[in-house]
Amino acid sequence: MSVRKASHAGSWYSDSAKELGRQLDGWLEAANFSHGPARAIIAPHAGYRYCGSCAGFAYKQIDPSNVKRVFILGPSHHVRLSGCALSTVAKYRTPFYDLTLDTQVYKELHSTGCFEWMNLETDEDEHSIEMHLPYVAKVFENHRDITIVPILVGSLSPERETHYGRLLSRYLADPNNCFIISSDFCHWGQRFRYTHYDKSCGEIYQSIQRLDQQGMSIIEMLDTTGFTEYLKKYGNTICGRHPIGVLLNMVDHIRETSNGLKASLKFVDYAQSSQCRSFNDSSVSYASAALLLE
Predict the structure, then answer these.
(1) 180 touches 136 (CB < 8 A)
(2) What is the 3-state secondary structure (H, E, C) of the chain?
(3) Which of 11, 44, 205, 251 is most buried, judged by most C-beta within 10 A?
(4) pTM for the model
(5) pLDDT tens digit string along 108-143?
(6) What percent of the chain shows pLDDT beyond 90?
(7) Is 258's pLDDT higher than 90?
């Protein structure tokens, strides 16, 4: 049986189950349950010392008792991908226990002809899905029979975001499923080749926050076209913009096809890795959100 190793354990997060468990418990306890039970969350995927606390706010909104399947949509950082890809392994390792991939759903997805397979090297190099696995394992520690459905999301055109959104919407509509949308927000600084600065906001970090919050409020309005236009206008370096685009399209499709299902999305936390004050500085922003479908 093939297993994807926890390749970023020991560097991006602790490889000691005891130490990691203590950290995650602490972040979950510090967060408040304000917008749940979530059918989907948006949460960051950086090293835990930067974003573990922020991610805790998203994971706090999940009620594990009804969930049987966890979909994890993460952007591809290393390979060019114009569509979406699935993993070839049976299990994903975490410092706590192994998470089992859902072969049935994978079969259904692959049969659409819209998904390719990623090789093990791509799978283990990518951190956007892995950084959610310890949190998933933690939140579901008393419900270990869940399965996971990792999906690596490429640089999708708006049309392809719509296509994948339609395709995945029936899974989001099922209350036994939970979706994790993996994204950081603004990557600011010369090393990211992105230095948008609106001086009317004050310091650089305040301008970054304003820019992020504009994007966040468009996402909260579930305004799919508005989000695409915002990205075109400002070029904000939101690395999970395509997974977020797919989520917004899933919600659009559910609203078109279901009778009066109400969707509400709220951001529950926002943080920056550091406060930029000069053009020599750099930072990454993190934002956590929860989506309710009722």
Answers:
(1) yes
(2) CCEECCCCECCCECCCHHHHHHHHHHHHHHCCCCCCCCCEEEECCCCHHHHHHHHHHHHCCCCHHHCCEEEEEEECCCCCCCCEEECCCCEECCCCCCEEECHHHHHHHHCCCCEEECCHHHHHHCCCCHHHHHHHHHHCCCCCCCEEEEEEECCCCHHHHHHHHHHHHHHHCCCCEEEEEECCCCEEEHHHCECCCCHHHCCHHHHHHHHHHHHHHHHHCCCHHHHHHHHHHHCCCCCCHHHHHHHHHHHHHHHHHCCCCCEEEEEEEEEECCCCCCCCCCEEEEEEEEEEEC
(3) 44
(4) 0.96
(5) 999 999 999 999 999 999 999 999 999 999 999 999
(6) 96
(7) no
Q: What is the CA radius of gyration of the chain?
A: 18
Tokens of 126: 């990518």
What whole-number distance in Å separates Cα of residue 37 and Cα of residue 61? 5
Structure tokens given for 232:
């075109």
Nearest CA to 102 out of 145, 38, 149, 169 is that of 149
For residue 214, the model assigns a pLDDT of: 98
Give residue 12's pLDDT.
97
